[in-house]
From TrEMBL:
Gene3D superfamilies, sorted: P-loop containing nucleotide triphosphate hydrolases
Keyword Nucleotide-binding in annotation: yes
PROSITE patterns cross-referenced by the UniProt entry: ABC_TRANSPORTER_1, ABC_TRANSPORTER_2
Keywords, ordered alphabetically: ATP-binding, Nucleotide-binding, Transport
InterPro entries on file: AAA+_ATPase, ABC_transporter-like_ATP-bd, ABC_transporter-like_CS, P-loop_NTPase
GO terms of molecular function: ATP binding
Species name: Lacrimispora xylanolytica
Annotated ABC transporter domain residues: 81-314
Name recorded for this polypeptide: ATP-binding cassette domain-containing protein
Superkingdom of origin: Bacteria
Amino acid sequence: MTNWTISRILEEYPYSMSYFEQNKLDITGFENQTLEEYLDHFSEVELEDQAIDKEKVLSDLPVYIEQMQAFLGIEKKNQVLSLTILAGHDKSGVTEGFEELTIHTSQIISIVGPTGSGKSRLLADIEWAAQNDTPTGRSIRINGDVPDNKWRFSSNNRLVAQLSQNMNFVMDLTVQDFLNMHAVSRLVEDPQSVINEIIKAANNLAGEKFDLTTPVTSLSGGQSRALMIADTAILSSSPIVLIDEIENAGIDRKKALELLVTSDKIVLMATHDPLLALMADKRIVIKNGGISKVIHTSDEEKELLKELEKMDTLIQHARQELRKGSNLTSDLLG
Ligand SMILES: Nc1ncnc2c1ncn2[C@@H]1O[C@H](COP(=O)(O)OP(=O)(O)OP(=O)(O)O)[C@@H](O)[C@H]1O
């Protein structure tokens, strides 16, 4: 946390303001500096006059935040507020075109690039919380710090939930049994109401409806993904969701992203779909195994997205009519 700017500390831990007040540290105007840089502003005389012990201020802040979290009853153990990717190198060993990228909860980041460029590799680096120990040399920080080993090596504290194109069930269970197993393992107080919420959300994403008595093995590809997305959003403890190409999944992609983001997750998705790429707040461009740049989705692109959505609705409509066996006419599509 010591390398964070003051505004980031305040954004992530708003109650830390009282720490600055109690220590009579007027941080106004220094928000874009790190705490250390701010403390460096004081002359020796000022430090002495105001009884400021720089080392103590720096080391006491995390302790104060931990105590406040305990006092306020905030679950600290699994709380992930941000994910930072530190640059590695591309397939030719050239340093990546960014230094670090921090993503906060409720943000969507898309990953674009040609086939084989390294999109899945980036997702894998995040999944394993790479520490300069993968082919890309990238490192991952959680809440600004080296991730605790529990994220890397524990099976029940999974940092990441993965949603991929290929999702097949091998268990012979109904949707009810499957969700119940998950809810019970997560010690949910009222499993049935959570299960009902998940099936409702899943049906909201899937084209063809299904119910709790449907065996999971007979769900279609789109229905399985809708169920997994709803389950991840509502029941999974993993704070980060990695999505590998859901464009052909036969589900409502926009609603799927909205569902994940409203449940406070960090969402990263590799995609070849312009709609999904532009729905993100930022997009990572991958070339030859390295991140070549990170682009903020511009206002113009957000406007263009509306046009693309209209075109997409038209194509979806045509697809549905063709599925139903209709003959397409301009009246029908109009
Ligand atoms: N920086 C790197 N250094 C070395 N190898 C890399 C690097 N980045 C990716 N690779 C390797 O390149 C191969 C292709 O990468 P990857 O599968 O991630 O591509 P992709 O963009 O997901 O492709 P697709 O769009 O086809 O799914 C993988 O074997 C991966 O491990």
